């Protein structure tokens, strides 16, 4: 018998997903999760982007999906991760953009699983982070999509992701931070029964 195909998983995100500073994408949390769970991984997105904020590259998560992913064969799972770059955007616009993006994914690939991950902070999150988190969480609830909340780690432990998790810029994860993020995400995915890319 030929070997079974590894699940194909696509992740749409910002610099936390595609790599930033000394941490390249192949060492980031998404790649670590994929290696641990035996996925084929395709990442899309760019630093500074969000659901509404196009960043310096002029591309939102929606555009990243359309230009980088939508023409590919259907994956088993799509993970949309981010939102922190939408800090100057109203909650309703973020929620609507998230709903539109997931709607586009579903129309293109009706049998593909989808997971939404809220904005990630590896240091203490500012109050406005929770406004973004709620907008994404509400969109996930409307869409009946699993929602993973990285800010819950901050709330639970109060110390963020621990010593050594954040780069000197105070924003992006170190290699250790990405390792801790990947362990958290694997545990969350397994809790939702999504280990093999089939929620």
UniProtKB/TrEMBL annotation:
InterPro entries: SGNH_hydro, SGNH_hydro_sf. Residues 11-178 form the SGNH hydrolase-type esterase domain. Coiled coil: none annotated. Keywords: Hydrolase. It holds the Pfam family Lipase_GDSL_2. GO terms for molecular function: hydrolase activity. CDD domains: SGNH_hydrolase. The keyword Lipid biosynthesis does not apply. This is SGNH/GDSL hydrolase family protein.
């Amino acid at each position: 018998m030929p070997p079974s195909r590894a699940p194909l998983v696509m992740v749409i995100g910002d610099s936390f997903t595609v790599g930033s500073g000394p941490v390249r994408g192949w060492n980031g949390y998404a790649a670590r999760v994929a290696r641990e769970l035996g996925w084929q991984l395709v990442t899309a997105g760019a630093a500074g982007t969000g659901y509404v904020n196009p960043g310096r590259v002029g591309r939102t998560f929606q555009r990243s999906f359309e230009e980088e992913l939508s023409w590919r064969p259907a994956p088993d799972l799509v993970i949309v991760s981010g939102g922190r770059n939408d800090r100057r955007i109203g909650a309703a616009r973020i929620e609507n953009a998230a709903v539109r993006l997931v709607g586009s994914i579903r129309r293109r690939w009706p049998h593909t699983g989808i997971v939404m991950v809220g904005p990630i902070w590896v240091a203490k999150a500012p109050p406005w982070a929770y406004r973004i988190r709620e907008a994404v969480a509400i969109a996930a609830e409307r869409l009946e999509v699993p929602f993973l909340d990285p800010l819950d780690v901050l709330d639970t432990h109060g110390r963020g992701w621990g010593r050594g998790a954040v780069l000197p810029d105070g924003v992006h994860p170190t290699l250790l931070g990405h390792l801790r993020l990947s362990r958290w995400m694997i545990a969350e995915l397994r809790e939702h029964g999504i280990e093999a890319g089939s929620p």
